[in-house]
Amino acid sequence: QTSVGIPSAPRNDREKAVKNTSIEIEWDIPKPDVGPITLYRIRWTNNTRSNLHETKETFYLIKDLIPFTNYTIEVQAETKASPGKWSEHATIQTSVGIPSAPKNVRGKDVKNTSIEIEWDIPKPDVGPITLYRIRWTNNTRSNLHETKETFYLIKDLIPFTNYTIEVQAETEASPGKWSEPATIQTSVGIPSAPERLVKSHVTNHTIEVIWEAPQPNRGPILFYTVQWGSHNDTTNELEYVIDGLNPYTDYYIAVRAETEAGYGRFSDVLRVRTKIGIPSIPRSVSDASKNATYLRLTWLQPQPMNGPLDFYKVQWTAVDDNRLQTVFTNDTTFEFFPLLPYTNYNFQVSASTVEGWGEPSVTFTTRTGIAVPPEATVTFLKVENSTDYLAEWRVVAPYPGPTTYAVYVWKFAGQCEGGGRIHDILRGSKSRKEWNQPTEVQVYGLTAYSRYSVSVQLKTEAGETKSNDSEPIHTPAEAPGPPTNVRANCEEKSTEADVSWSLPANPNSKITHYFVEYGSEYLGYREVSVKVNDVCQVQKITLRGLRPERDYKISVRAIGEGVTKKGEQASPPTSCLLPAGVPPIGNQQWIKIQSPQPSHLNVIWNDIVFSDAMGSLIEYSVIVGMPESMGPPSSGKIADEVPLWTNYSSGLSKFYQATPAGWNPFLKNDDEEEDPLKCRPQDEDAHHVILQCTLGLESNCATNRSYCNAPLKPDTPYMIKLRAFTRGGYSEAGPLTARTSKPSTSGSIGGIVGGFFAVCFCCFLIFGVFLMKKKGGFEHVRKIIESRFVRPTLATSQPETGVELETYQHGRCIKIQNFCEHVRIMLSDSHLKFSEEFETLKHDSPKLPCTAAEMDENRHKNRWMNIFPYDHSRVKLLPLGDEPASDFINANYIIGDSSLREYIASQGPLANTVDDFWRMIWEQSTTMIVMLTQLMERGKVKCEKYWPDEKEPKYYGDIQVKLISESMLSSYIIRVFHLQLGSQQRMVKQMHFTHWPDFGCPERPEDLINFVTAVRDHLPRIRPGPIVVHCSAGVGRTGTFIVVDRLAQNLKHNDDINIFETVMELRQHRINMVQTEDQYIYIHLCVQQLIQEIITPSNQECSEPIYSNVTRETDTGV
């Protein structure tokens, strides 16, 4: 037999019996059999430890294992030869064991009726816990609950109670042990209602109550709340005294307890009534109804009444009476009568119970109603003068209440009135204090020479009464008021005006006659008397010998019997502008016709061929025809239509018109269409304009033209007529016959001879003029020369003895001692010399470039399209960046008496140039603005308002302007402005003259002189910049102001004056300065007034101006 070998690994290791702490395993004997097995070794391990055991059997019981744990088990066989290999390992898990007691039982969330507990899982882990049992007990009962979680919420517990809690775990093997008991107390709970609430003591103002604590005890009571009605209070005791209660009042009382968990329920309500007390104050005392002498007082019961009421007591008195009266009643109303009307009464009401009288109510004051007033009595009337008297009236009766009075002043029918009328109603009121005192009323505004009576009406809300009329009173006579309906019919006749008027609204006396005054403020007035036959009829008079197109002011005054003072004139005086008439023929000897060339005729004539006595000559025409083709001169309202050039050129007519419509060579200027006759002055220094107009200058006239200055035929006779037109008609001079010269055959010799004769002619002319000025020898020759070549001076225009002729030449200085005489003569003969001088001024005025104003970018910045600033003197603004033409403003520098830029003459700002205007003020450092126009005149905007309202600053561009003050004077307004640009500030003053009427001049020279003086007075001593003067266009009124201001300064250090050259100097810097003849005359009148104030009154004092009229040119708003 072979020896024992090493065995192979046992086979088929397997569990035989498995328990929670032991595993019995078995296995098969190793194959093949190599010999007797001496022993088996068993090796088992888990995650924490390993063990080795030996046995001789093919099974083995492994003990002391951990329940519900995986074990790896291997078996090894051993023979004598050696141990064999270990078997394949077998993994076997022990069975579930009995769990240990849960650990750390604790409260997770404890409330007053629940405890949420939690615990730790039993250790070691002996298998899945199938459930936990929770056992909790208090002193009265025990409960058992089950859960599969490691926490549990125990509900329905008693607040503020200790509970013993245990937890037991159970597996499928068996329940484990109970945990250590945990004692947990529930939180404090909301208490139950207090018990046995009862009253212990009651008075009329207090109730004492007691109670027992709530059961069961659910925690410490913090305090008790006692509630009665809408009131409550707290206490820590089991009793409470409620005070401040109303007597005889039911109170409902309840108590509740409060723990830290909150309020408990209130106890059962306890009803307790306080004892009877003194009643409270009656309520709502009022007057239910009342009139002037009766009042019914009502009130409501006291609340609370504090017990059954016995009586009411009413105490009352008049406010102005110290007597206190008392009445008693069981009712809540009481009637009082008789009382005084409109009187304040005080009432107090009190109530009583068995305990006594309560406090009286708050004083109720009411007033009785208003009564109908008694009749007044007029007690006194006194006439104080023709327009005032004093009336007195009174009443004797109780004061009825607020009373107004109306004193009716009745005027009886006067002259020419159909009936009487109420002159005035003087209203007022009478207070209680004044009621029984006499009332004086001063009646004003009465009409003199009239009868009046007075009655008084008293009125309250209740009604009214009226007194009887007083005895009539008579006012004395005085100067009559202004006549009414003063009208002048000036539209039908050129030299007459029909004036009518009616009785003054206030005759003030018996009218015996009227004075009618008519004329001009500048040149004097005439006055005529009109006797009155029937004072109630419309009065009429015809004024004759008037001048057409002259603005007359007509006023009418009434004269009263026994009154030395003239009556008032209607204001304003009636204006009368007579229409132009047919112009009369003047001196036709001044028409000369020459033939310088075979195809030309020169017509030499002057402006006295036709007279302007019937109105301004506005148009002329020259009519040319064949001999015998034209009839005698005609005149009339409407001129016969002259055949057209078309008719003459086609042979249908023998004459034609050589001049265009509207032709007036005496008003020619460079801007008008070229004159087809090329008229030109022949004598620049004469008092009258002599023109030479040439016929035959045009060639190739179109056949469809209405006029043509066509070439004339050589050596041919022609007939020529001159026509002159006013706005009211025309007249003709001529016809004159002239023959054109023959054609020349020796041109060069004729030129030499012609030149020789021309030189001789000029010498002869100069010699003749010299003789004329000398007025000495060769008188006959002088007269011939004067009649041919020098315009004669009308007799009415000759200077009077003692004044040299040179005084009246244009542009000459006048000594101040001769100035008044100079003005008198200039005003004579309807101010003819002024008209001539002003025409010369306009003719000689320069026409300078205005390129900047005519640029397209600047045209909209000009108010008038014919008033542009000259380029050489215009004010240039600082440019605004790259903005084109931003340096332009319609304004020019004007030379002054002390500075080359003393003034700036500007147009009134437009809406789009206001910012530019303030830029100019700032950049030029101007401190004075002179404004000579209203913002709107006759419905037309003359100047944009360029300043803000008072105390409302406004920005103009970057410049802030604020109106600081505004002072209204009789004829001008002074405004002070505050200007600010960035941090720089300045003050600027504006002097605004408000009495310069549209279409005219100020009423009196003193008006402008006073204003000029005021402007100078307001100038600062050191002026940093020019004075800015503007009207609307900035030429007419502006020029007038500057000239008067300059001449006023000049008169302070010079004894002569030259108005013509001063105006001309202004026109060198701005167009049309002093625009109208009226303004030119007005300057002379202002200077005359200034001179009168300088010289000592003597024979040099100016006399009243000779009566005449001033023709007003059409105003352009300047």
Brief summary of the model shown:
Helix content is 13%, strand content 35%. By secondary structure, the protein is mainly beta. It is an enzyme of class 3 (hydrolase).
Radius of gyration: 65 Å
Spatially, the strands of the biggest sheet line up as: 58-59-67-60-66-65-64-63
How does CATH name the architecture of the largest domain?
Alpha-Beta Complex
Amino- and carboxy-terminal Cα gap: 165 Å
Largest sheet: number of strands, sense, barrel closure: 8 strands, mixed
- β-strand amount: 35-45%
- As an assembly, this protein is single chain
Going by CATH, the homologous superfamily of the largest domain would be Protein tyrosine phosphatase superfamily
- Low-pLDDT runs of 5+ residues are 746-810, 1097-1101, 1103-1118
What is the count of β-strands? Answer: 68
CATH class of the largest domain: Alpha Beta
Number of helices: 10
What spatial form do the alpha-carbon principal axes imply? elongated
What attributes characterize this protein structure?
single chain, 1118 residues, mainly beta, Immunoglobulin-like, 8 domains, eight-stranded mixed beta sheet, five-stranded antiparallel beta sheet, 68 strands, elongated, membrane, FN3_dom
Any overview of this molecule?
The chain is mostly beta strands. The protein folds into eight domains: 11-93, Immunoglobulin-like; 103-185, Immunoglobulin-like; 195-273, Immunoglobulins (Immunoglobulin-like); 283-367, Immunoglobulin-like; 377-475, Immunoglobulins (Immunoglobulin-like); 483-578, Immunoglobulins (Immunoglobulin-like); 588-667 and 674-754, Immunoglobulin-like (Sandwich); 814-1095, Protein-Tyrosine Phosphatase, Chain A (Alpha-Beta Complex). 13% of the residues lie in helices and 35% in strands. It contains ten helices and 68 strands. The strands form 17 sheets. An eight-stranded mixed β-sheet has the order 58-59-67-60-66-65-64-63. Strands 3, 4, 6, 7 and 8 form a five-stranded antiparallel β-sheet that branches. Strands 11, 12, 14, 15 and 16 form a five-stranded antiparallel β-sheet that branches. Strand 63 (954-956) and strand 64 form a beta hairpin. Helix 2 crosses helix 3 (779-789). The longest helix has 29 residues, at 816-844. The radius of gyration is 65 Å and the shape is elongated. The protein starts with 10 loop residues before the first strand and ends in a 24-residue tail after the last helix. Mean pLDDT is 86; it is low at 746-810, 1097-1101 and 1103-1118.
